[in-house]
C-alpha cells in the first residue's frame, strides 16, 4: 500500500508543482478546470462504460449503494450536529457539513482500489460514487448549500443529474450488461485507451486543486471534526453496515476503503455556487488528503 500511495503522491505532487511554478504562465486553477472537464465529460464516461458493461450484476450492487448512501448521510448528520453545537457562521457550517459527508470516491478512491486490489475493484469505486455519492451531492448536498449559503437559486436535482455524463454512461452500461450484449473488441480497445488516461489526469488535477496557501493553524479546531468523521468514523460505520449486509473478503475491503477516502474535491463546486466558505473547504480537502496517506494503509492492514 505504501508503494502504491507513493506513486500516486508523485502524480499529486506534479499538480502541486504546477500550482506553485505555473509553467508557461498557465494558472493551476485554469488548467485544472480544463483537465477535470475533459476527464468528467469524456474520459470518465468511457471508463464507466468499460467497467460496468462487463461487471457482474447482482445484489452486491444494491448493497454497495446502500452502505455508501448510509455513510454519506451519517457523515452529514454528524457534521450538522457538531457544527450546530460549535455555533460557527452559516457559510462555515455548510461547507463543513458537505465535507463531512462526501469522500473522494472517484478521483482518489478509484486509483487506490485499482492499484491495491486489481482491475475488478474499479466497478466498486464507480458504483460507490455514481449510485450514491454523486446523486446525494446533487440533491442533499445542494439542499445544504442552499440552506447555509446565499448564492444562486437551487436547481431541481433531476435537472442537475441530467448534466452528469458519467451517470448517463452508467445507465447505458447497465442496460447493455443486463441485455447480455457482448462488447465488440474495437469498442473495448477504444474505451480502454480513453480510460487509461483517467487516473493520472485525476491525480494531477487533484494536486492542482490542493490549496496550501489557504491553510491556517487557527482553522484546525474547525476542521478537526471533519477529519475524524471522514477518516475514522465513516469507514467504521460502513464496515459495520457492510458486515450486516453480508459483504465479505476483498469486496468488503474495497467498500470500506472507499468510505475511508478524504473529502471530495467536487464539493468545491457546491461551495462556490452557494457562497459557502470555499477557502476552508479547500483547506480541509488538503488536510484530509495529506492525512489519508497515513490512515489508508492502516485501514488496508486492518481489512486485508
UniProtKB/TrEMBL annotation:
Predominant location category: membrane
InterPro entries: Mem_transp_PIN-like, Na+/solute_symporter_sf
Gene3D superfamilies named in the record: 1.20.1530.20
Record's bilayer topology term: Multi-pass membrane protein
UniProt xrefs under Pfam families: Mem_trans
GO cellular component, one term: plasma membrane
Subcellular location: Cell membrane
Residue ranges crossing the lipid bilayer per the database entry: 6-21, 33-55, 61-83, 90-108, 128-148, 160-183, 189-210, 222-240, 252-271, 278-300
Name of the molecule in the record: Auxin efflux carrier family protein
Amino acid at each position: 500500500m505504501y508503494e502504491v500511495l507513493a506513486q500516486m503522491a508523485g502524480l499529486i505532487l506534479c499538480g502541486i508543482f504546477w500550482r506553485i511554478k505555473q509553467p508557461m504562465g498557465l494558472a493551476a486553477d485554469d488548467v485544472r478546470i480544463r483537465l477535470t472537464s475533459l476527464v468528467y465529460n469524456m474520459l470518465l464516461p468511457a471508463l464507466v462504460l468499460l467497467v460496468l458493461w462487463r461487471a457482474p450484476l447482482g445484489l452486491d450492487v444494491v448493497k454497495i449503494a446502500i452502505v455508501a448512501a448510509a455513510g454519506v448521510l451519517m457523515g452529514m448528520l454528524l457534521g450538522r450536529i457538531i457544527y450546530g453545537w460549535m455555533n460557527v457562521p452559516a457559510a462555515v457550517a455548510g461547507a463543513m457539513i458537505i465535507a463531512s459527508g462526501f469522500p473522494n470516491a472517484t478521483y482518489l478512491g478509484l486509483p487506490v482500489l485499482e492499484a491495491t486490489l486489481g482491475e475488478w475493484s474499479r466497478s466498486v469505486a464507480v458504483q460507490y460514487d455514481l449510485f450514491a455519492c454523486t446523486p446525494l451531492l446533487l440533491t442533499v448536498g445542494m439542499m445544504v448549500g442552499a440552506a447555509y449559503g446565499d448564492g444562486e437559486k437551487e436547481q431541481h436535482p433531476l435537472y442537475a443529474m441530467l448534466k452528469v455524463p458519467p451517470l448517463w454512461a452508467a445507465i447505458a452500461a447497465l442496460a447493455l450488461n443486463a441485455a447480455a450484449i457482448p462488447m465488440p473488441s474495437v469498442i473495448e480497445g477504444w474505451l480502454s485507451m480513453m480510460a487509461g488516461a483517467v487516473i493520472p489526469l485525476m491525480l494531477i488535477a487533484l494536486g492542482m486543486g490542493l490549496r496550501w496557501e489557504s491553510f491556517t493553524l487557527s482553522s484546525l479546531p474547525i476542521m478537526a471534526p471533519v477529519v475524524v468523521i471522514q477518516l475514522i468514523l465513516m469507514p467504521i460505520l460502513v464496515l459495520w453496515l457492510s458486515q450486516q449486509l453480508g459483504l465479505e473478503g476483498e469486496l468488503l475491503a474495497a467498500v470500506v476503503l472507499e468510505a475511508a477516502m478524504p473529502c471530495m474535491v467536487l464539493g468545491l463546486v457546491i461551495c462556490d455556487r452557494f457562497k459557502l466558505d470555499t477557502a476552508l473547504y479547500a483547506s480541509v480537502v488538503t488536510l484530509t488528503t495529506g492525512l489519508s496517506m497515513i490512515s489508508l494503509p492502516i485501514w488496508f492492514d486492518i481489512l486485508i
